[in-house]
Structure formats: structure tokens, C-alpha cells
Design brief:
CATH architecture of the largest domain: 3-Layer(aba) Sandwich
Order of helices and strands: EHEHEHEHEHEHEHEHHHHHHH
Number of domains: 2
Oligomer: single chain
Radius of gyration: 19 Å
Distance between the termini: 58 Å
CATH class of the largest domain: Alpha Beta
Number of helices: 14
CATH topology of the largest domain: Rossmann fold
Helix content: 40-55%
Strand order of the largest sheet: 3-2-1-4-5-6-7-8
Number of strands: 8
Largest sheet: 8 strands, mixed
Length: about 325
């Protein structure tokens, strides 16, 4: 049994705290709002984020950062990507020096283009061996309802990846290990962008052919990008790539799909952001991802079209999987 802190009591942070508790760990969940912590402690619910879900009675919650982090062997972080840096600065004095820090986030920092693991390393000074990412086909409400799924824990230290995988595996949730931090993290980031594209065409009213084409060509874009930045090719074919893309692309539980669907129905970006109850990481990550792609000369036509729709420069009905680059599909003889 590990002593674990989970930082962030939104839908994913609370769900993962449930997984970790059900795996037999001593878990304390940090909630920014005292009323959320009180509801979790007293009623074993988090009604704002996981309606209808009963949480484990031995899951504890607190709004006191020092209390939550005290003695933690593993610290799981589930805050919006664009607020991570600020949060880490606040938490830094209380982070145990020998803890494993685990990112549950799927985004790119706007101003720097850094992945979340890179932000954690830069702000905390922790070694790469102490920083892990967990990613996969993980829709919060389905997992909180104990529907079986799997994920990947990636760390440059396989030993630490195995410690995280052990802590985050229970009857309905299995965590596998990898050393491909870059590929695992980019899989979670990039699939959100393709999910927005699928949402757009769904909102427009296009059928399965269009969506299947975009998903397939989107996976090719994800693979090219990840490999250019050092990710392993096989990672995009696994849980952290294809698996996550399938789960997110058309699910009504996906915030990124919901955001795309609203864009497809003609809502402006500002209206979409206002109507979403939680952050859709794909919307914030598109611009920095395209900047990173340009730096490596990577063509990402689907992501570029999503950005054009977001900016109001392209009508949603015009989005399609245009193969504006040389095809990498198998050629017939």
C-alpha cells in the first residue's frame, strides 16, 4: 500500500483517486474548494463532477496543500494544463523530495510549447526518473462507474513506472508500463485535437465515412508528430495512441468532442468555452502544437483545419480529411 496524494478534484482527479483507493492505497485528494472536500469526506460524493457516483468511504479529501502532500510517496496531478505551472509553484515547498510525480494531464503549455512532464521538471527540479505520465482510453464517468479499461504508465525509470502501475491497478482498471514518456504524453495530447475534428463533422451532420477518414488520417498525423519529437512508433498503435483516440473521438462524454460538435453547429469559440462546464484541453493545445509542428516541418492538415474553424476562417462544413501531403497509405500494384 502506497501513501498517495491526488492534486485536483475535478472529474478525472476524483475518478483516479477512486481507482487508487480501490487499489488498496492510502489516498488523500486535494480540492481547491473546501465545500468539495467536505462533500467527499461527509457524503462520499463529488456531485459537481461525478454525479451519481459513490466514492470509497476511505478516500479522504482536504483543501490544505501541506496536509495532502505530507509524506506522499506518489503525487498524481490533475489540474488544467494552463494552470499547472502556477499550481506547482504554490505546491513546491510541500512536495516530498523523493516522491514520484505523476501527470494525469493531456495538454501543452501555451507560452512554451512544453509537455506537462516538461513543465513539472522545469518548475520542481525533480529528475526525469521521478516524473511519470499516465494516459490511455480513460473517460472519467465510465471508469468511475467501474467499467473495465486499461492505461499506460510511462517513465524513464521502468522501476518507478512499475510502482505507479501497481498502485493504479484494480479490478476494473489495469495499468501497463512503458519507458516512452514522449510518445505516451503526445498520444494523450494529440488525440484531443482529432477528437475536436470528429466533433465538428458530427455537429455538421456528416456520417461515418467522413469520421472514419478523419480518425484514420488523424492517427497518421499523430504518429508523424510524435516520432519527430522522439516518440516510439509502436506507442501510437497502443492504448496511449489509437486506444485513447477511439475512446475520445466520438464519445458524448468527451469534452473535446463536445467542443467540436458545438463548433460544427455554428457556435463561436468564445461561446463554446463559456458553455463547457470543464476544460477541453484540445482547444488550448491546438495553437502550440501547430507551432511545434512547424518547427519540425510536420504537415498536420486536419489539425490546421480545426484551428481555422476555431478562428472563424473556415466554415465547419468545409472541414474534411484533405490529403494535402504525400500519402503514406499502402499503394496498390
Amino acid at each position: 500500500m502506497a501513501k498517495i496524494a491526488v492534486m485536483g478534484a475535478g472529474s478525472w482527479g476524483t475518478t483516479f483517486a477512486k481507482v487508487l483507493t480501490d487499489s488498496g492505497n492510502d489516498v488523500t485528494l486535494w480540492a481547491r474548494r473546501t465545500d468539495v472536500a467536505d462533500e467527499i469526506n461527509n457524503e462520499h460524493r463529488n456531485g459537481d463532477y461525478l454525479p451519481g457516483i459513490e466514492l470509497p468511504h476511505d478516500l479522504k479529501a482536504s483543501s490544505d496543500v501541506a496536509e495532502v502532500l505530507s509524506g506522499a510517496e506518489q503525487v498524481y496531478i490533475a489540474v488544467p494544463s494552463q494552470s499547472l505551472r502556477t499550481s506547482l509553484v504554490e505546491w513546491a515547498p510541500h512536495l516530498p523530495a523523493d516522491a514520484i510525480l505523476v501527470s494525469l494531464m493531456k495538454g501543452v503549455e501555451k507560452d512554451t510549447g512544453l509537455r506537462m512532464c516538461e513543465v513539472i521538471e522545469a518548475v520542481t527540479g525533480f529528475s526525469k526518473d521521478q516524473i511519470c505520465v499516465v494516459s490511455g482510453p480513460n473517460l472519467s464517468l465510465e471508469i468511475a462507474a467501474e467499467q473495465p479499461t486499461a492505461s499506460v504508465a510511462a517513465c524513464e525509470s521502468l522501476e518507478n513506472a512499475e510502482l505507479v502501475a501497481k498502485a493504479a491497478s484494480c479490478a476494473y482498471f489495469t495499468t501497463f508500463t512503458s519507458k516512452d514518456v514522449i510518445g505516451t504524453e503526445f498520444g494523450g495530447i494529440l488525440k484531443n485535437l482529432i477528437a475536436v475534428a470528429i466533433g465538428i463533422v458530427n455537429g455538421v451532420g456528416y456520417g461515418q465515412n467522413t469520421k472514419a477518414s478523419i480518425m484514420t488520417r488523424g492517427l497518421a498525423e499523430m504518429s508523424r508528430f510524435s516520432e519527430a519529437y522522439g516518440g516510439k512508433k509502436k506507442t501510437m498503435k497502443g492504448l496511449a495512441g489509437l486506444g485513447d483516440l477511439i475512446a475520445t473521438a466520438e464519445s458524448p462524454l468527451s469534452r473535446n468532442h463536445k467542443a467540436g460538435e458545438m463548433l460544427g453547429k455554428g457556435y463561436r469559440l468564445s461561446e463554446v468555452v463559456k458553455r463547457l462546464s470543464q476544460t477541453a484541453e484540445g482547444l488550448a493545445s491546438i495553437a502550440p502544437v501547430l507551432q511545434l509542428a512547424e518547427a519540425k516541418g510536420i504537415k498536420m492538415p486536419i489539425v490546421e483545419q480545426v484551428y481555422a474553424v476555431m478562428q472563424g476562417k473556415m466554415h465547419p462544413r468545409d472541414i474534411a480529411p484533405h490529403l494535402t501531403h504525400e500519402s503514406d497509405e499502402p499503394q496498390s500494384e
